[in-house]
Design goal:
Blueprint (H helix, E strand, L loop, with lengths): L10 H20 L7 H25 L1 H13 L8 H4 L3 H14 L22 H38 L5 H31 L1
Helix pairs in contact: 1-2, 1-7
């Protein structure tokens, strides 16, 4: 049985997400050129974040990949990152039965050289210590990236305010267009990969 990652989203979904993200980034960084009130910008940015998150959730729930993953997870009880090609081809019941047989034939930890108890094993089979460490690492990464984003945004804002004071027209918009172009450029490999996967399935 070959273990694979969850299927890649279709290219149209990737393009829609990229377009929405690019527009959001441009609007986010260009806003000071058009709304001078800091309080008003905060309100608009908060509303924009909420709308962007809602759009992402709606798009995800309507995406074939999401629906297929949810259906498979519910059918097998297998975490998304442990889904198999057989599960995606419709053999969910046989895999679940196989997993149940293996669980009843051997105690947890037997044959691996380690003795684990049910209290130390998470529902997905991952050791709880490993799971906690992974979650902590992910949290640190998110926190670090958030802090870095805030620092960079403040530096860009103050730099563009100084440029505006020197008479440069729409400095924030210029930076916003650059960041938007970089955002779209980063997503190009994902679009190519999705289209290549679609072509291979035809």
């Amino acid at each position: 049985m070959t273990t694979i990652d969850a299927p890649q989203p279709d290219s149209r979904s990737v393009i829609r997400t990229t377009a929405a993200t690019t527009a959001f980034v441009v609007g986010w960084y260009a806003l000071p050129d058009y709304v001078r009130s800091k309080a008003a910008r905060t309100v608009l940015k908060t509303a924009g974040l909420a709308a962007f998150a809602a759009l992402g959730i709606r798009d995800m729930r309507h995406d074939d990949t999401w629906q297929k993953t949810v259906a498979t997870v519910r059918g097998t009880g297998t975490p998304p990152w442990k889904l198999t090609d057989q599960a995606f081809e419709g053999s969910r019941s046989s895999q679940a039965a196989s997993d149940g047989t293996q669980a009843s034939d051997a105690p947890a930890g037997e044959g691996t050289g380690t003795q684990t108890t049910p209290s130390t094993v998470a529902p997905d089979g991952m050791d709880r210590t490993t799971q906690v460490a992974a979650l902590a690492g992910a949290g640190l990464v998110v926190m670090g990236s958030s802090v870095l984003t805030v620092v960079v945004e403040k530096k860009v804002f103050h730099r563009n305010e100084a440029r505006a004071a020197r008479g440069v027209r729409l400095p924030h918009t210029r930076s916003a267009l650059l960041f938007g172009a970089l955002t779209a450029l980063v997503a190009v490999p994902d679009v190519w990969h999705s289209r290549a996967a679609e072509s291979a399935q035809r």
